[in-house]
Amino acid sequence: MEEVRASAAWVASCSSHVVVDSAGIERAVENIQEIPRIEWDFEGIHYFDNGPLTVQYLFVLDTLNFCFWPDKDLSYDHLASGLKAALENDKSVFDADRLQKFTGPQLRDLLKWPRPLPLEDERIRLLHEVGFELKRSFGGKASNLVETCGKSAAKLVATVTSLFPGFRDHSVYKGHQVFLYKRAQIFAADLFGAFKGRGYGEFTDIGSITIFADYIVPAVLQQLGVLKYSSTLVRMIESDNEILSGSEEEVELRACSIYAVEKMRDLLRVKSGKQVLSIELDLWLWAFGVRCPSLRHHRTLSIYY
Ligand SMILES: Nc1nc2c(c(CN[C@H]3C=C[C@H](O)[C@@H]3O)cn2[C@@H]2O[C@H](COP(=O)(O)O)[C@@H](O)[C@H]2O)c(=O)[nH]1
């Protein structure tokens, strides 16, 4: 994930709307006695059977793991628990052949959602893409895809982003390509979390994964005083103005979040001598953010997060 780390650091070094505040990082880290251990699936909403079907479920989940906010009643929980119920009801629902044939109304029915999902046509296109490529290259099974990566999370992210175009979460910022790879990285992290670092979740390089730059974590980092926004950006977020995907503001919010958490991780290592994973920091920050209803986040229509 060197390209994610390096390009996020580069954005932070020349950003115009978001500042990573070193003093804020020091204060935040000083206040942390110990990183609260948040259990993966603390919500109890994910499917798990310790086998290949769980891998298929997580791949479909992370194919669709983006953009819930345009519908004020919809959240990630609905997606995770809706897909779980669908799989419990029909073990072949995420077979590659069936993924290639999904329609919007069928996905809505599956999730028991009464109206069109945000970016529903994109969600369907991505399901088709995943079904097609899984069938073409991996005998239809996401578990085979994971097995070809030889316990390397970095290889898994590289394979997913090279074979499945919908996972290629990158931007061009001030002329430079910036890699963020939120859904590809969270797929590796979800495997690691669900399988508790064993079996399909065993990765020798899990420390290489960065945080997942979504719309919750930047808002938490701002509240902690780790990120500082320009007054124009504050106004845009507070007035719920859409921030365009690929705009300087949007890339800075996401890239500076990645960079800031890497800095927090470095400082924690120096302070306590302990190695903390970025994904542990991510889950702690994210779980805090989703439990905080007053948190205002930026609004971008995007298939990446
Ligand atoms: N950085 C980060 N972002 C994450 C997650 C997760 C879920 N991870 C699961 C894995 C194990 C745990 O038990 C979690 O359940 C979702 N998201 C993002 O949040 C947003 C949804 O927010 P809201 O509209 O309020 O539901 C949306 O962009 C979604 O893509 C995470 O872990 N980290």
Structure description:
By secondary structure, the chain is mostly helical. The protein has 14 helices and four strands. The strands form two sheets. A two-stranded antiparallel ribbon has the order 1-4. The chain has a two-stranded antiparallel ribbon with strand order 2-3. The radius of gyration is 19 Å and the shape is globular. The site of the ligand Nc1nc2c(c(CN[C@H]3C=C[C@H](O)[C@@H]3O)cn2[C@@H]2O[C@H](COP(=O)(O)O)[C@@H](O)[C@H]2O)c(=O)[nH]1 has 23 residues, from α10 and α14. The ligand Nc1nc2c(c(CN[C@H]3C=C[C@H](O)[C@@H]3O)cn2[C@@H]2O[C@H](COP(=O)(O)O)[C@@H](O)[C@H]2O)c(=O)[nH]1 binds next to α10 and α14. This is Queuosine 5'-phosphate N-glycosylase/hydrolase. Its EC number is 3.2.2.-.
List the helices and strands and how they pair.
Blueprint: H1 2-13, E1 18-20, H2 22-30, H3 52-63, H4 76-89, H5 96-99, H6 104-110, H7 120-138, H8 142-147, H9 153-163, E2 170-173, E3 176-179, H10 182-194, H11 217-223, E4 227-229, H12 231-238, H13 248-272, H14 278-290
Antiparallel strand pairs: 1-4, 2-3
Helix pairs in contact: 1-13, 2-13, 3-10, 9-10, 11-14
The chain binds ligand 56B.
InterPro entries: Q_salvage
Enzyme class: hydrolase
Keywords: Hydrolase
The DSSP helix count reads 14
Q: Could you report the average pLDDT, rounded to the nearest whole number?
A: 97
Q: What structural class should be given to the helix and strand makeup?
A: mainly alpha
Biggest sheet: strand arrangement: 1-4
Uncertain runs: none
Each distinct ligand = ligand 56B
Distance between the termini: 18 Å
Largest sheet: 2 strands, antiparallel
Shape: globular
| N-to-C series of helices and strands | HEHHHHHHHHEEHHEHHH
Q: What radius of gyration results from the CA coordinates?
A: 19 Å
Question: How many beta strands in the DSSP annotation?
Answer: 4
Tell me the strand percentage band: under 5%
EC number: 3.2.2.-
InterPro entries: Q_salvage
Enzyme class: hydrolase
Function: Catalyzes the hydrolysis of queuosine 5'-phosphate, releasing the nucleobase queuine (q). Is required for salvage of queuine from exogenous queuosine (Q) that is imported and then converted to queuosine 5'-phosphate intracellularly.
